[in-house]
Write a structure and sequence with these properties.
Helix content: over 70%
Radius of gyration: 19 Å
Distance between the termini: 56 Å
Length: 240
């Protein structure tokens, strides 16, 4: 069963990448060439190349997300923090609140800078949940992790969309979010293996390291200047 949970999301991600390269998909996006000509861009990279780095980052972020869902309650119980029943609702409310109240942060600071801060916050919160020995400590750590998760995912999405024209946003978003499912599918077995080797606390600490690796994986090797990304996302079309 766990093999199917890990493999099926990867198959879906591969199917999305193949669909993005199909002749029919290329014909459907003929208008993208006109958009590119208007803004003077070079020919667009494949959807796979555009999404692979932010997508792998999303997979790593979701390792921490799944570990908290699977072993957060067990970890706080192990540490006698006494808030096992609140682990999921506090985190869920925190993510909703952060994505509502802090929604403009990636636009103002840029996705790369926001992502770097977000994964630092999220990994610290996840490690805090793992080692918290009191209810206030565990609740604060859950809120911190929720803020990081709430900012990391939209930042990664902006990175995936930044170098493609609007006519390709739907396809690119679909390929990008396939990595979300892959992260969920792989996160359960990975966290379970870490918990078996160590304990629930060890599983959270191990996946906190994976979350911390998100920014280097998603950002290293990017060649597009930040100013160009900003123009693509926020500047109006003045060609007419």
């Amino acid at each position: 069963m766990w093999i199917a949970a890990a493999v099926l999301p990867l198959i879906s991600a591969a199917l999305v990448a193949l669909q993005a390269r199909s002749p029919e998909a290329g014909a459907a996006h003929h208008g993208a060439r006109e958009d590119d000509a208007e803004i003077g861009e070079r020919p667009q990279r494949s959807t796979f190349r555009v999404t692979v780095r932010p997508g792998l980052g999303l997979m790593l972020v979701n390792l921490g997300y799944v570990a908290r869902l699977s072993f957060g309650a067990a970890a706080v119980t192990e540490q006698h923090a006494g808030v096992a029943a609140l682990v999921i609702p506090v985190f869920g409310i925190g993510v909703i609140a952060s994505r509502t109240m802090l929604a403009g942060v990636p636009d103002r600071l840029g996705p790369a800078r926001t992502l770097t801060g977000a994964v630092l916050i999220e990994s610290a919160g996840l490690a805090g949940v793992a080692v918290a020995s009191s209810s206030p400590e565990a609740l604060v750590a859950l809120v911190v992790m929720a803020v990081g998760q709430g900012l990391a995912v939209p930042s990664l999405g902006l990175l995936a969309l930044a170098s493609v024209p609007p006519s390709r946003h739907g396809r690119t978003a679909g390929a990008f979010f396939a990595y979300f499912d892959a992260g969920v599918g792989l996160g359960g077995p990975a966290a379970g293996l870490a918990a078996r080797v160590a304990d629930p606390t060890g599983a959270l600490l191990a996946t906190a390291g994976a979350v911390l690796a998100t920014a280097p994986v998603a950002l290293l090797g990017r060649t597009e200047p930040r100013a160009r990304i900003r123009r693509r996302l926020v500047e109006p079309d003045v060609s007419t």
